[in-house]
Amino acid sequence: MQWHPQIEQYLIAEQYNEVTNFYEHAIEESPDNVLNYWYLGLAYLISEQEELAQTTWMFGIVQAQESEEQDYGEDPTFGLKNVLIEEIKRQRQFGNTRIAWVISQHLREIAPTEIKNLFEIVELSIELGCFEPKLLKELNVSKIILDNSQDFVDYQLLLELLRKIFEYPSQEAIELCKVCLGFISSNTNSIPQLLNIAVRVGDYLDFPEYAADLLELCLEIEPHNTEILKHLCNFSTNSGRFQR
To answer: pLDDT digit string (tens) for 134-193?
Structure first.
């Protein structure tokens, strides 16, 4: 799914009035084509008319539910979700981080358990400088990862997420790592990558206690790994853990 070729020039020039005019006319001509509703709503959203965007999408969802010509299965929002996912990618390619973040928030409202979008929200929040560890709980990331365990196992994506959130060491990051270990432990490269993260947290970011917590999790997977034991001893000492 992509924008109609005739309006690409308006998108590039950020002439969103022309974009909305195009899709409003398209809906007048083909009111049963729900794709036009998805893109009209998206055009409203990009031009900071969020209420109009949501209203337009609701009309589209109703059309999809009532349509006899097109098969939408059990999820009338399926097409809309795909449109938003592709637009997030497009906006990121153009460096429009804030717009991508706004779209990802609306995608979450439509599909709150879409795990890759939740990761996207976290990453975009980090890039925008507005990330706080409590966001992981607000998004319910840990539970959704567990609930998606049979459908979603992408260890590299999980490792990349952990690498980014441990730039903000917190108990929320540790809790998420506990959940992720079941997915990433089967990969031979996961423990070395987690070890590198722990060393950065403990040495460069100067959070030895969180580094020790992370290494203790790693030790559950590889209890005889001497490299983990060496760093764990070091960070436990630096954090005063041995004195308690």
So the answer is: 999 999 999 988 887 655 657 788 889 999 999 999 999 999 999 988 778 777 788 999
- Which letter does DSSP use for residue 69 in this model? S
CB atoms within 10 A of CB 67: 14
| Three-state SS sequence of 102-151 | HHHHHHHHHCCCCHHHHHHHHHHHHHHCCCCCHHHHHCCHHHHHHHCCCC
Q: How far is Cα of residue 154 from the mean position of the Cα atoms in its chain?
A: 13
| CA distance linking residue 179 with residue 162, whole number of Å | 11
Tokens 């973040």 found at: 101
* DSSP, res 3: -
Report how far residue 44's alpha carbon sits from residue 56's, in angstroms, rounded to the nearest whole number. 9
CA distance 129 to 15: 28
Selection from 191, 170, 172, 171 nearest residue 181 by Cα: 191
Determine the Cα–Cα distance for residues 55 and 61; give it in Å rounded to an integer: 10
Q: Which of 37, 54, 50 is nearest to 1 (CA)?
A: 37
pLDDT tens digits, 75-127:
889 999 999 999 999 999 999 999 999 999 999 999 999 999 999 999 999 99
Give every CB contact of residue 153 below 8 A, 6+ residues apart in sequence.
Answer: 183
What pLDDT shows up at residue 149?
62
Q: What is the mean pLDDT of residues 204-226?
A: 94
How far the first Cα of the chain sits from its last, in Å, is 58
